[in-house]
Amino acid sequence: HGSDTAVLEDHLVSVHRDGVVVTDLNDAGLRTYKASQAAGSETYDRTDYGGAYFYSGMLFFSANSGKGIYQVDIDLGAGTYTAKLVGKSFKTSYNDGLNCMNTDAPE
Q1: What percent of the chain has pLDDT over 90?
Q2: Cβ–Cβ under 8 Å, residues 22 and 29
Q3: What is the separation of C-alpha 65 from the centre of its chain, rounded to a whole number of angstroms?
Q4: How do residues 52-104 score in pLDDT, each as one tens digit?
Q5: 65 touches 54 (CB < 8 A)
């Protein structure tokens, strides 16, 4: 099991069972840190997220458990995130996400 990764500006972002992990690609040592949950954020299901999706500046992660698709907003300056359940998903494994950088997110 594992989690997919999406690119946000010059950072890699992935959602894991134990938190949102960010890797700063500008840092010579590839600094990696766990982002803190911001006030007002929904608590996402603590499972594996095999699909990461990037649409026009927005990040989405789908839960392999079928618990849903979450939009995750990262404040890179503050090192925090907010998560919001935005859709349904099916239980799956061995999946991957996609990037549509100039396409609107599906509704």
Answers
A1: 9
A2: no
A3: 15
A4: 888 878 888 888 888 888 999 999 889 999 989 999 888 887 666 666 656 67
A5: no
